[in-house]
Structures are given as C-alpha cells and as structure tokens.
Amino acid sequence: MTSPASAADASASSAPAPAAPDDADRSPLVVVLAGGLSHERDVSIRSGRRVAESLRSTGLDVVVHDVDADLLPFLRDTRPDVVWPLLHGASGEDGSVRDVLEMARVPYVGTGPRASRVVWNKPIAKAALLEAGLATPDYVTLPQSLFRDLGAQPVLDTIVRHVGLPLVVKPTEGGSALGVSIVSRAEDLPRAMVECFAYGETALIERAIDGVELAVSVIDGPDGAEALPAVEIVAEDGYDYAARYVAGETEFFAPARLTREQATHVADVAVRAHRALRLRHLSRTDLILDGSGTAHVLEVNVAPGMTEMSLLPQAATASGRDLAELYRSIVDRALLPAR
C-alpha cells in the first residue's frame, strides 16, 4: 500500500513545470494526529476523524496520522504546513509530543509544551489557578506509596476528617474521568483509591462542590481569548467515561440554563484560566457553579475532545458558528507567524 508520504511525493513529481506557482497556490496541508497508546485512544481517533472531515470541507488538504515510528519520517518527507494534535492522555497532553514537534520545527495547533505540562498535572494547575485568584475546590495530593508507609486506614481516616464528605478522588494526570470517583460514604473511599491508582501513582482528593456542572470552551481570536457559550452537564450518576461518550447517558444544555450574569461570570473565569495558564488557540475549562454564584474550576484541558458528544463542538454550535469554519479559523491562527 502506498504511504501518504509516497503519494505526496508522487503527486509532486508529476506536477507540470513550473512548480513554484502550483506550490504557492496549493491548499495548506494539515496533519491531524489521532490515536496514540493512552487509555483514551478511541476517543482521540473519533475526535481526529471528525475534525479532519470538517477541515476537508473547507478546502484544506488533510491527512490523519497516528503517533508511531512512522510519524517523524512522514513529517520530514511531507513537510506539512501545520499539525493538529488531537491526542488525549499521556504524551498527547503532557507536552512531550509538542516538544518533538517544536524540535522538528513543525507549526502546530494548541498550547506549547511547558504550559501543557502545567495543565496536565492537576495539582500544579490548581496552584496556578489559585495564584491567579480563581476558585478551585480544596484538595490534597497523596502518592500510593504513602498509604503503604503510614498504613492505609489511618491515612483514609485523616482524609475524611480533613477534606470532608462528599469528596472526589481522581488521578493527578489523565482525562475522560478515568479513575475518578465521587465518595459520599467513608466506607467507599478505599475502593475509590484503588480505582484511582489503577490509572496513576498519585491521587488528587478534593472537596466535592454542590452546584451546576459546566464546561466553558475558549478560542483565541483576532481580539484575544473568547469564551463560547457554557454547556451544562446533567449526569444522574456522575459525569464518568460512559456519561461522556455513550449516547443517552447524559443530558446536555447548550447554552447552559444560566442567567446573563452567571453566563458572563463563568465565561470570564474560563478566559482568566486560559490566560493564567498561558494556553494557546483553544482550551476547555470544567467548573462547578455553586449556589452562592462562585465558579469553582475543576480542571482545564489543552486538547478538548471533538467527538459527536464532546463539549467544545456543542458550545460552538450553540454560538451559531459553523464547526468547519471554526476549525479552519483555528488552523489559520496556528499558521500565523509566532509573535
């Protein structure tokens, strides 16, 4: 089977002379990275497929490529104009793939590697948000080794006394709610810790906030960062992996059922989080709006999902924007010279 790189070379070699005008007039080549080896591989593939289809509809030349041993030779041979990493989980969001793209001098969509690492580590990101004056639930961060060193039960008892119930247990790194549990009873905490440690060596334990669960996506535009309408999430048993990606498991309201003042507040919080964490091109902030009107930031995502059920596409549609044109505008912004 002919590889995408070979096909591109063959096409270039058969082009009529002179080649320069053809090259100048050609549509930009976009490589969408999708797949990878994380727990969220399937979500990444679905996101990549949908974004690629949308970009092609705007006239762009788009190739979808996995993250594998062929990637760097492919990028070297095809020399794409821009890469869009639609990778979820480790390597896709921890900055490592973005570091490689920078070393290869390939422009790409999204936040740079250093800021990505800050966001990928939830406790570090929460510290940065607190420093910026944003609210986030009280939390502690505990490695699995500590439970072995100090004894599991004394540590669990201390967690309940300090953090209180209900609380949320989640891996410090990762997404799609994998390894996340909401704990309302002390006797359920050991199981939640076991499930969390199945996805990472360190747990983030934070106070559960009662309120409206929202997601606010932010897009960089000509006038700076702009929030799309908030999406309200109503999941009876919690917004877990199934609730995110299985149709019918969750009810979404886009735009969210908020007053004008509330909508303005959560949009401002998301934009402030985007700026405080030095994010670029696009992001999504997940938060809880409590009964007093305070928006508590749960986490921020540098690679929002783009599946048929994902929150950023829902927000874009609610804003009246054409998805394909929005994605094209993101690519066009990534093609601008760095300032």
Question: Can you walk me through this structure?
Answer:
The protein has 3 domains: 4-110, Rossmann fold; 118-135 and 209-321, D-amino Acid Aminotransferase, Chain A, domain 1; 139-207, Dna Ligase, domain 1 (2-Layer Sandwich), CATH 3.30.1490.20. Helix content is 41%, strand content 21%. Residues 1-21 and 239-246 have low confidence and may be disordered. By secondary structure, the protein is of the alpha+beta class.
CATH architectural name of the largest domain: 2-Layer Sandwich
The largest β sheet comes out as: 6 strands, antiparallel
Helix content: 40-55%
| Separate helix tally | 14
Order of helices and strands: HHEHEHEHHHEHHEEHEEEEHEHEEHH
Distance between the termini: 41 Å
Number of strands: 13
Radius of gyration: 21 Å
**Would you state the CATH class of the largest domain?**
Alpha Beta
Q: Which consecutive residue ranges, at least 5 long each, have pLDDT under 50?
A: 1-21, 239-246
How many distinct domains? 3
Supply the helix-strand structural class. alpha+beta
Mean pLDDT: 89
Say which CATH homologous superfamily of the largest domain is assigned: ATP-grasp fold, B domain
Strand content: 15-25%
Say what the CATH topology of the largest domain is. D-amino Acid Aminotransferase, Chain A, domain 1
Overall body shape: globular
Domain ATP-grasp: 126-332
Subcellular location: Cytoplasm
GO biological process, one term: regulation of cell shape
Binding site for Mg(2+) 2: 299, 301
